[in-house]
Design a protein that fits this description.
The chain has 483 residues and is mostly helical. It is built from 19 helices and four strands. Keywords: Signal.
């Protein structure tokens, strides 16, 4: 049976699950004093739920949000905006979150559904999709990670080898391909009725998500391995995608409130970035009032990323624009993957791979409309105006598409940062003058660091990864990053 990654730094005993999805999470063991079997349904629920909530955690607001120049943090969280790297606890914690709350669950659930009494091909495919989506985030944050080895840490493999990002991507797209075929023909009764926080057991939506995510990965591969990426893209085009907002991968069943509400009005307090606000204002984008709240004077004012401590102290941070109500209301949704992003990805494929500018423009407009629908705004004037259609050179049209991906991904800011690293748009200029240059000399960070815990517990393999991909620095570009 295939080994699945289970990082040494987070090899833990199976703990009490805290996420509720109907009553399945109360049924981990048949005998609490001597468990013989584990129900894979609560493991799947825990993993899927945690992955959805990962879109609004430290990786997204503190790092992705500020690195993508979408938001600015107050308090000590602002230090990440200075391109510094003294965040060892965060680097360890962000990986731990994915390991402990997602991959640990999928590792066990995959083992249960692979053979024996619990064997279930459809469930196995769904779990594999969740695991791939978690691994994708992990490798895109850190680069080389233990992917093929590990999964049996409880059996003694406590120093897994780190695999190259190229090999990881090859396997992830292959796993998605096989899972899609199984899910498309699957009987929902054999899946996870009452235990699916993504789509409430809708197999068509799961297949669309898996294929849409595969397209996202294929386009990241394109910078590093165009031929292989083209083959994956061609395969994606034969399968269904997320196309309408009712197919969006979302979540709104919080235990308390939408986490963006807490972050905006409590610690660390978030404000909209000047760069993001300028994009919306300069194009008369109808999503402005949905994504950005008025400042205390009734207008709109952002905070510039990278400003010095002196300028920040004089910025009147507290009166600047918060995130919009449709993002932070207690009942607002978290967005994992949307029709808007997928249409824009397809527009990029049409333009750059198939060289069909007319089709690219159609898909571009479909993406805009899907985003307007998502935020419940009237976009007719925008679509009829100068920014509603692709124009200019192929590079100019590419910039239009990729800038709209950046806007559409909000508030999943970790993915916003990944998108900028892949495409180069919107352009994040190297900082100069009295701006905060950090440890990168003002260049946008490209990754997170391997933590000291990793280096101390798996030194030989971590050092091999560093030798393979480059120095353990936040400006070391990863395999697929745009050069």
């Amino acid at each position: 049976m295939k080994k699945y990654f289970y990082h040494i730094a987070f090899v833990l005993a199976l703990g009490t699950l805290t996420v509720a999805c109907d009553d399945h999470l109360d049924k981990l063991n048949t005998n609490p004093n001597g468990p013989e079997t584990i129900d894979d349904a609560p493991l799947f629920t825990k993993a899927a739920h945690s992955l959805l909530e990962y879109t609004a955690n430290t990786s997204s607001f503190k790092f992705g949000g500020q690195y993508s120049h979408s938001i600015m943090c107050g308090g000590t969280a602002r230090t990440a905006d200075g391109y510094t790297d003294g965040f060892d606890g965060d680097y360890n914690g962000m990986a731990s979150n994915l390991m402990d709350n997602v991959i640990r669950q999928t590792t066990d659930a995959l083992a249960i559904t692979a053979e024996g009494d619990g064997k279930n091909e459809l469930r196995h495919a769904l779990i594999s999709v969740v695991e791939v989506m978690a691994f994708a985030k992990l490798t895109d944050m850190y680069g080389d990670i233990p992917y093929f080895e590990g999964g049996h840490g409880k059996e003694g493999n406590v120093t897994p080898k780190y695999d190259s990002q190229a090999d990881i991507y090859d396997d992830m797209v292959a796993r998605l391909a096989s899972s899609i075929d199984i899910i498309q023909g699957g009987n929902p009764a054999n899946a996870y009725p009452n235990s699916d926080p993504f789509f409430e057991n809708d197999m068509d939506k799961w297949a669309r998500l898996a294929n849409s995510f595969r397209l996202r990965l294929a386009l990241r591969m394109r910078n590093a391995d165009p031929a292989k990426a083209q083959a994956v893209i061609a395969a994606c085009l034969t399968k269904p995608f997320i196309e309408t907002i009712d197919q969006n991968a979302t979540f709104d069943r919080f235990e308390t409130v939408n986490p963006w509400f807490d972050l905006t009005y409590r610690w660390p307090e978030l404000k909209v970035s000047t760069k993001f606000l300028d994009q919306l204002q300069n194009t008369a984008d109808p999503r402005l009032p949905a994504l950005v709240a008025p400042d205390t004077n009734g207008g709109y004012r952002g905070i510039t990323n990278g400003i010095s401590d002196t300028d920040f102290a004089e910025s009147d941070f507290g009166s600047a624009s918060n995130l919009g109500d449709k993002v932070i209301e207690s009942g607002s949704k978290l967005y994992f993957m949307t029709a808007a992003e997928v249409w824009f990805l397809r527009a990029e494929v049409a333009l750059l791979v198939n060289e069909d500018a007319a089709m690219a423009n159609t898909y571009f407009q479909n993406g805009l409309q899907a985003s307007f629908d998502q935020w419940d705004v009237d976009g007719s004037a925008f679509l009829a105006g100068p920014h509603g259609s692709l124009a200019g050179s192929p590079e100019a049209m590419t910039e239009q598409i990729d800038t709209q991906i950046w806007v559409a991904l909000a508030p999943d800011y970790l993915e916003s940062w990944f998108s900028i690293r892949r495409t180069g748009y919107p352009v994040i200029e190297q900082r100069t003058g009295d701006m905060q240059l950090g440890v990168t000399n003002g260049v946008l960070p490209s990754r997170f660091l391997y933590s000291t815990l990793e280096l101390s517990t798996n030194k030989t393999n971590v050092e091999a990864a560093i030798a393979n991909q480059g120095a353990n620095k936040i400006d070391t570009q990863l395999w697929w990053d745009k050069q």
